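Hi F.,

I've been meaning to write this up properly since the lab meeting, where we talked about keeping a consistent format for the predictions we share between groups. The idea is simple: the sequence comes first, exactly as it goes in, then the structure tokens exactly as they come out, then a line or two of notes. No screenshots and no reformatting. I'm using this chain as the first example so we have something concrete to point to.
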Amino acid sequence: MNKQMISKIKEALKEDIPTIDVSSHYLFNDEVSQGRFIAKENGIISGIEVCKKVFEIVDSNTELIILKHNGDSVIKGEVIAEVKGKTKSILQSERVGLNFLQRMSGIATMTKKFVDETNGFDTIILDTRKTTPTLRYFEKQAVVDGGGINHRMNLSDMVMLKDNHLKAANSIIEACKFVRSKVGQDMKIEVEVETLEKFKEALDSDTDIIMLDNMSNKLMTKCVMLNRRKKVLEASGNMTVDRIKSVCATGVDSISVGGLTHSYTSLDISLKF
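Output, unedited:
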């Protein structure tokens, strides 16, 4: 777990407990309790290590035994983890721990549904930067736990020339040539195109990846045929679970799905003493 994630966990705890937990502080002293994290629906677990870190930060003497690890499937009624420690410490950690665990598991569960649709194809499922501000590391980790692959983490990771970049440039070829002269050969360049004409231009440019944005399956199939494995092709735009198999069948290398991190539903998990 990186420093940024630990820092965000501490921020979340500070948000939830700005001074003291007035519900537990006066009611309990050193009483000890045990609890179980229980799945209330089927899904894929993600964020259990983050949840554990929450409890450790609040009270290092709290013991959380992980029974279901990141990436594990869980069915309704299964116990994900057990916790033992001071009653007030558990209660102070509960909500923040569950918030991370439920949301990350929701992303992993949704990602797994998309990944399962690629069975039999070489196509991979990618995430995007459409993440909750300041929580990107958590959400992208959840995508990985669900079997997906992280696209660029941030704007510094790779060059991506999208429609607004290209509208301000003379041409795709010239834009890629200029950027390549600045970033060198070690950094990937990706170009977004929406038409066959633009695709053909990108095919002759110094780009590594071409994003086929909001194209029909028929048009993507034509792009794949023209490409002849020259560039990496990424499909994007309005990707639903029901559509994934047909998009894979076009022959694209990857499919990016913004919904993985902006349209997921948290997995229902509870902590019961």
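Notes:
The longest strand covers residues 32-39.
Residues 87-116 form the longest helix (30 residues).

If this format works for you, I'll send the rest the same way.

G.
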